[in-house]
């Protein structure tokens, strides 16, 4: 391959020099090409001015073919080598796996025999003890995430991690990098823009960081819980919901339609849930207004002509939609 | 043809490598979980590591940062414990199941939040989906010292039912903070007015008695309960009970009858400390 590049360059730039050299690598393949020689000669005579180019082009082609054959051979060889390498690796790994499996089995057996505590008989090195302790502290720090607030000290302050959950399911975590000197300041954070972080910071950050984090955590947990509920509804009850569920970014307003089957008919319900308390995952508005609306509608049907009742529904719907 | 054979081997290698990684982790986890070193052993190791460090640094070898790493992790942990008021005194973890996309761990955790102690047991299921990891707490069981309190036990069983560990800690923190606040307030008044204030149930009790030694029989009892509902919301509840001897009763009837109502409005106006302080002043001036 290394000969190839410079040779070609030479043959195009300096045809005469290349002619003698160019023969060598292609020589083995020349035999079949001789049958073409007559034709070539004819062509060469016709195009006297270009004759050297014709030969060179042919030689070049031969050279390329020879190169291709070489490549194929080389490839096959490489393939074989690769296969051998892979086989060896499989063997090596299988051995390693079996050894490890035996080690794990032995360990389990020993632990069963000793009912738990199975310390190594050999005196552990200081390094092993420290590594053990590091893992232990790390595990405890991980458990701290389950309390809702964890974090680590930084050069200029603290980076807190606020985790959220709905019942037993852990949800997203958010980061809050605080600068503590000369005064407490938020350096960076990953809290969604629609959480009133600035307001909360203004209210509590300078006076009570604990309170600040606790209120912020209430906001984040309520948001996460509302979002989780909406996701669950869509995931598990999509067959009962008509169309799509609409929600705002804070997930404190949900609008969706669903059908209530009753005897052989279904009643379409339009639901608008408003979560007035941003620290709550239970709506403040919907159930009362739903019941009220159903009651109002049946009341209207009993007292007003049907088409007038419906006109008043659509009027009410418009004014409700227009209301903030 | 050849490439497909290679592919078979490559796949095999990948699956073996995964298997080895998993087994190694399993071995490591199990080794970690079944070993125990005392604080003393750890301290010794730190010291011996320091000596090694000395020797190494003199020999111009690069010093290991194992000790520094441990110390920084420990600083983080002690900061968190101090900041949140949640102290973990012991933690045991056992990996029950481990596959490529599923890990089940059993945890046993004991500790205290301010002055309230707790023991927890739970299972942590970690599942690796295509792009995200889901973590679920289950089989949660909580034991608390103040378990006799019916409020607390209702709250705890509601938490256990849903595996709501995070909510437990968040509510426990605010509950324990009120507990701590009450303790400090009682302590403050006992120290400031030792002749008048008595704590029949000690600092952790939920009432104090105000008594003027010159007037035996006349007592005010300030009851301070901390209520926690099933959702974990904490509210302090304060009330005043009076004990007046019969001869006093006749001519002070009106005042003592109105005292509890007065105390409640004082609480709203001045807050807990000032309301109690006022009561104490009234008792000490009583002639």
UniProtKB/TrEMBL annotation, chain A:
<feature type="region of interest" description="Disordered">
    <location>
        <begin position="1"/>
        <end position="32"/>
    </location>
</feature>
<keyword id="KW-0539">Nucleus</keyword>
<dbReference type="Pfam" id="PF09496">
    <property type="entry name" value="CENP-O"/>
</dbReference>
<dbReference type="GO" id="GO:0031511">
    <property type="term" value="C:Mis6-Sim4 complex"/>
</dbReference>
<keyword id="KW-0158">Chromosome</keyword>
<feature type="coiled-coil region">
    <location>
        <begin position="59"/>
        <end position="115"/>
    </location>
</feature>
<dbReference type="GO" id="GO:0005634">
    <property type="term" value="C:nucleus"/>
</dbReference>
<dbReference type="InterPro" id="IPR018464">
    <property type="entry name" value="CENP-O"/>
</dbReference>
<keyword id="KW-0175">Coiled coil</keyword>
<protein>
    <recommendedName>
        <fullName>Centromere protein O</fullName>
    </recommendedName>
</protein>
<keyword id="KW-0137">Centromere</keyword>
<comment type="similarity">
    <text>Belongs to the CENP-O/MCM21 family.</text>
</comment>
From TrEMBL, chain B:
<dbReference type="InterPro" id="IPR027801">
    <property type="entry name" value="CENP-P"/>
</dbReference>
<keyword id="KW-0175">Coiled coil</keyword>
<protein>
    <submittedName>
        <fullName>Centromere protein P</fullName>
    </submittedName>
</protein>
<dbReference type="GO" id="GO:0005634">
    <property type="term" value="C:nucleus"/>
</dbReference>
<dbReference type="Pfam" id="PF13096">
    <property type="entry name" value="CENP-P"/>
</dbReference>
<dbReference type="GO" id="GO:0034080">
    <property type="term" value="P:CENP-A containing chromatin assembly"/>
</dbReference>
<feature type="coiled-coil region">
    <location>
        <begin position="6"/>
        <end position="33"/>
    </location>
</feature>
<dbReference type="GO" id="GO:0000775">
    <property type="term" value="C:chromosome, centromeric region"/>
</dbReference>
């Amino acid at each position: 391959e290394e000969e190839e590049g410079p040779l070609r360059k030479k043959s195009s730039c300096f045809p005469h020099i290349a002619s003698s050299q160019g023969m060598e690598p292609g020589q083995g393949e020349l035999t079949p090409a001789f049958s073409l020689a007559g034709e070539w000669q004819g062509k060469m005579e016709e195009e006297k001015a270009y004759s050297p180019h014709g030969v060179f082009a042919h030689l070049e082609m031969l050279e390329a073919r020879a190169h291709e054959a070489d490549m194929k051979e080389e490839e096959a060889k490489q393939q074989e080598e690769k296969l051998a390498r892979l086989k060896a690796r499989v063997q090596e790994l299988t051995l390693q796996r079996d050894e490890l499996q035996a080690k794990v089995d032995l360990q389990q057996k020993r632990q069963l025999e000793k009912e738990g505590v199975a310390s190594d008989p050999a005196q552990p090195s200081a390094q092993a003890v420290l590594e053990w302790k590091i893992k232990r502290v790390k595990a405890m720090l991980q458990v701290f995430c389950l309390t809702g607030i964890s974090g680590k000290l930084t050069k200029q302050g603290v980076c807190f991690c606020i985790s959220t959950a709905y019942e037993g399911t852990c949800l997203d975590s958010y980061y809050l990098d605080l600068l503590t000197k000369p005064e407490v300041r938020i350096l960076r954070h990953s809290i969604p823009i629609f959480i009133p972080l600035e307001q909360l910071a203004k209210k509590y950050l300078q006076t009570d960081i604990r309170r600040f984090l606790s209120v912020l955590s209430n906001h984040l947990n309520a948001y996460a819980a509302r979002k989780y509920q909406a996701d669950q509804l869509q995931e598990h009850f999509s067959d009962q919901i008509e169309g799509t569920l609409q929600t705002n970014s804070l997930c404190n307003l949900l609008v969706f339609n669903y059908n209530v089957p009753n005897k052989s008919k279904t009643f379409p319900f339009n639901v608008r849930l408003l979560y007035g308390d941003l620290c709550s995952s239970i709506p403040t508005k919907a159930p009362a207004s739903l019941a009220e609306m159903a009651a109002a509608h049946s009341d209207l049907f009993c007292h007003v002509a049907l088409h007038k009742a419906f006109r008043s529904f659509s009027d009410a719907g418009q004014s409700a939609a227009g209301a903030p | 043809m050849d490439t497909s054979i290679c592919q078979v081997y490559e796949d095999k290698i990948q699956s073996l490598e995964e298997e080895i990684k998993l087994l190694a982790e399993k071995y490591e986890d199990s080794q970690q979980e079944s070993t125990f070193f005392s604080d003393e052993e750890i301290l010794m190791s730190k010291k011996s590591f320091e000596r090694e460090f000395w020797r190494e640094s003199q020999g111009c070898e690069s010093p290991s940062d194992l000790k520094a790493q441990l110390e920084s992790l420990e600083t983080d942990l002690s900061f968190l414990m101090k900041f949140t008021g949640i102290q973990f005194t012991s933690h045991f973890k056992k990996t029950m199941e481990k596959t490529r996309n599923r890990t089940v761990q059993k945890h046993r955790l004991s500790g205290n939040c301010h002055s309230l102690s707790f023991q927890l047991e739970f299972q942590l299921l970690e599942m690796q989906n295509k792009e995200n990891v889901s973590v679920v707490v289950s089989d949660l069981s909580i034991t608390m010292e103040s378990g006799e309190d019916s409020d607390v036990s209702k709250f705890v069983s509601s938490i256990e039912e849903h595996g709501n560990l995070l909510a437990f800690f968040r509510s426990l923190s605010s509950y324990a903070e009120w507990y701590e606040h009450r303790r400090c307030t009682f302590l403050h008044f006992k120290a400031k007015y030792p002749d008048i204030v008595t704590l029949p149930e000690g600092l952790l009790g939920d009432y104090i008695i105000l008594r003027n030694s010159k007037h035996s029989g006349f007592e005010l009892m300030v009851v301070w309960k901390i209520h926690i509902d099933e959702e974990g919301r904490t509210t302090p509840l304060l009330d005043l009970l009076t004990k007046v001897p019969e001869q006093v009763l006749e001519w002070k009837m009106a005042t003592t009858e109105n005292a509890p109502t007065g105390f409640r409005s004082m609480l709203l106006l001045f807050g807990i400390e000032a309301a109690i302080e006022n009561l104490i002043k009234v008792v000490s001036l009583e002639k």
